[in-house]
Each structure stands twice: as structure tokens, then as C-alpha cells.
Design goal:
This protein is an alpha+beta fold. The chain folds into two domains: 132 residues, no CATH class; 83 residues. It is 33% helix and 33% strand. It has a nine-stranded antiparallel β-sheet with strand order 1-7-6-5-4-8-9-10-11, with helices on both faces. The protein is elongated and about 60 Å long.
Length: 215
């Protein structure tokens, strides 16, 4: 297992590189991470090695170990480990009158990543402090997407092996509204049409903190 306490710089990986990293330890967690990142099914190992593996090797993120096998190192090793052992996935989208943004928060029992799509199908990864509370990270990310815009909104959809729930928030002028519940449900668990920024933050923190099967 990699040292997740070591601070690593943010880094980007292409779809092909991510396909290679997901092939290191195939399984349900990796498959869900691939779906979250819009990375298609991992191709055969030989094809993956030629495309993604070659790119990682050229960047120094893949080495030949003492047993004669290729192994990811440094940031690639941490990304591969978290993506293939993740237990909770949160997609986050936000929009204002002028901008729109999206990203993903992927958590394993040992650490988490924030991922943001970039051009040409690449993803940019931010390594998070393993000691940081997930609720704090999610609140900061969602409220950061809303920013100070007078007309804005955000949606966070959180998935585990056993549940799928969503939290939405909208700001119009000085007014706030939010709701949360099972994704796709006709009746959310809560709808508040007259809320405040502080109440939205509190309910969002409670939403993720009480989420079933949290790591």
C-alpha cells in the first residue's frame, strides 16, 4: 500500500493512462471509479500497456520492478490504489450565470482524491489529506462552486455499494433553497425553499456524515 500521508503535487492523467492504472487491480471499485471518470471499459492488458503504460513509463510514473513486472510509482501508484479500493464516489456539478464546472470526489478507506476533467479527456487529480473530514471537503467544494454569484446552483450525487443519494442547492439573490434524498426519488427526504447559506452547509455536512456505508 502506498504512503498516503506523503504530500504529492497535483497531477493530470489521460484516459489511456487511467485505463492502465485501473487494470492494475480490476474489480468493482475500479469499475465504479471508471464510470465516474467516464473512462470506458479497460481494454486487454497488451493494448493498455502499449498506450497508457507507455505514456506512464515515459513520464516516470511506471517502472520495471525487481520481478520484471511493470508497476506504477509515486502519484500514479496513489491514484491507482484509491481508484481501485474506493468505497464512496461523489459527482459534483455547479453553475452560475457565467460559468459551469464539474468534478468528482473519490474516497477509499485510506484516503481521497478530488478529480476535475480537463481538455482532451484528461483528468486533474488533487490529493487530499487523509485526516480531513469528508463532510468538510464536500461542503468546501460545493459552496466553492456556487461562489458569490447571485444566481447559482450545485448538485452532489453520492454513491456507495448500497446507496445512491443526491443533494441539490440553488441560490437566487439572497434566497437559498436545498433538497436531498434518494437519487431519482419522486419525494426527497427534505425540501427547504427558504434556507440560508449556513443551513445549507450544515445539512450538506450532515448528509455526507450520516451517509450509509461511509468509509
Amino acid at each position: 500500500m502506498p504512503d498516503l500521508d506523503e504530500k504529492l503535487p497535483d497531477i493530470g492523467f489521460s484516459v489511456e493512462e487511467l485505463q492502465y492504472l485501473l487494470s492494475v487491480a480490476p474489480g468493482e471499485s475500479g469499475a465504479t471509479s471508471g464510470e465516474m471518470l467516464n473512462v470506458g471499459p479497460v481494454p486487454p492488458v497488451d493494448e493498455t500497456l502499449l498506450v497508457g503504460g507507455a505514456a506512464l513509463l515515459a513520464r516516470g510514473q511506471l517502472v520495471l520492478d525487481d520481478d520484471g513486472r511493470f508497476a506504477p510509482v509515486d502519484a500514479a501508484l496513489v491514484v491507482a490504489f484509491i481508484l481501485t479500493t474506493a468505497t464512496r464516489w461523489t459527482s459534483i456539478t455547479g453553475a452560475t450565470e457565467d460559468t459551469a464546472d464539474t468534478g468528482a470526489y473519490i474516497e477509499s478507506p485510506s484516503g481521497g482524491l478530488l478529480a476535475q476533467p480537463r481538455t482532451l479527456g484528461t483528468w486533474w487529480f488533487v490529493f487530499l489529506d487523509p485526516a480531513a473530514p469528508p463532510a468538510e471537503i464536500l461542503v468546501e467544494t460545493v459552496m466553492g462552486l456556487i461562489g458569490e454569484a447571485k444566481t447559482s446552483g450545485a448538485l452532489a450525487r453520492t454513491i456507495t455499494a448500497d446507496d445512491d443519494r443526491s443533494f441539490s442547492v440553488r441560490r437566487t439573490g439572497d434566497g437559498w433553497a436545498h433538497a436531498y434524498g434518494a437519487t431519482g426519488s419522486e419525494m426527497p427526504d427534505l425540501i427547504s425553499m427558504q434556507s440560508t447559506r449556513e443551513q445549507v452547509s450544515l445539512d450538506l455536512a450532515a448528509f455526507i456524515a450520516r451517509f450509509p456505508a461511509a468509509p
